[in-house]
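Example record

Each entry pairs one chain with its bound ligand, beta-D-fructofuranose.
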Amino acid sequence: MKEQLAKAEESVAKLQANRNDRWYPTFHIAAPGGWINDPNGVSFFKGRYHVYFQHNPFSTHHATMHWGHVSSTDMVTWKREPIAFAPSIEADRDGVFSGSAVSSDDGDTMYVYYTGHRWANGVNEDEGNDQVQCLATSQDAISFEKQGVVVRGPEELPHFRDPKVWKMGDTWYMVFGACSVENRGEVWLYTSANMEDWEFDSILFRDPDPEAFMLECPDFFPLGDKWVLVYCPMGPAISGYANRNGHNAGYVVGTWAPGEPFIQTKQYDLEDWGHNFYAPQSFESPDGRRIQYGWMGSFNHPLASQEADGWSGQLTVGRELSLNADGALTAWPIAEVEDLRVSTTEIGPVNLGFDESLRLVDDATAVDIELEIDLAATTANRVGLQVHKTEDGHHSYVYYDDLAGRVGIDGRLSYAGESGYRAAAVNPGADNKLQLRILVDRGSIEVFVNHGEATVTSFSFPADGPRAIELCSEAGTAAITDLRVHSLRSIWEN
Ligand code: FRU
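Structure tokens for the complex follow.
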């Protein structure tokens, strides 16, 4: 694989040298250049956190998947590592697709399970795919030895990919997504005693939605006394505010124990309501937190950065997952994000009159905003923040809509990026307060509502010039009880 990796590095260095940084993330993981999609192999191994990702080092489009790699001792500052995988064996000829990483029992070897991808006709998906689960091992998480195929499925299945592995008791478990012969999206479960020989156990889950023909990137993990199955169904149609993106990620909750069936106890719901959130993957950190990274990108809508800027796609910040009292999944920026704060502007309680706006910051490139709205004392139809606001009037609008009871991101007046809006239903607590945490990077917005009960994640690519932030009320007044803006530093060590 050495030769292929050297070529990949050479290409990425060229893209990096010509990269336009106007929208390139400051505090989100991204490749130095080229295309990225799914986070892969998120893990902790020999004292470092590792995040790999689907990566095409040759252009800003999805093709010839490699695995890019970054690592960190603290999930605050990250180091760019050499590209970890390139297609180099027959089984992964057309791509080293998504997968996961675990550590051997003695902690000395990293085992990576990934999908070896081949197009049946050698050029595209038209005549189907040939997908198998492969193993690679490493002593340092940097250079890997491919061990070949460990799981081969029925040849007629067109989709069979994205292994996620974990251990319970003496047994290793692997789930991955499949498209059944009846064209239904399923999650298959395999087990192993030695990490190398894998046996079919059961079909853990079949999506009750008959439109879902493939479940990409399943992730199955315990939270409290429940098990959460996160997956990305391909096929479901638009439904109200849901499934508006070409690709959407969601989850179900249930109970499970080794040898038992998964019993679903909570209906499917989207995990994030923005334009750009897909293929998330989680791991358990040494202190017991369930931490997830998602991909911000799009297979369907060309991104403005893809054209001329030399890069495409980034990951979300790390999100700590929990189940709330209603049994729903919550996601909150990991505490480490707060360590990136370098200065804070306290704006404090503010009351806005009818149709009023207030400039908070003249130029913000990377900020973490905390905002609390007293809904009982607010009459505005919508209240929110215009971010990435440039002199020409372009901006993206992060808003609370009192008529719809939703928090959203409206891209209608964004400079570049998707123009539509996306919004999540919110449930203000008994005190009728709505808390928003909004992370704004050079090209993205992540909104976390009420301790993470809803999240909305979208790209936002501003015009040239200073990027202001303005608070505004529409057709009514707004009572803001708490408001501060923290500036964030870069995550990069190199
Ligand atoms: C999801 C996905 C995976 C696949 C990978 C290929 O975004 O399509 O199913 O392994 O991306 O890059």
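The radius of gyration is 22 Å.
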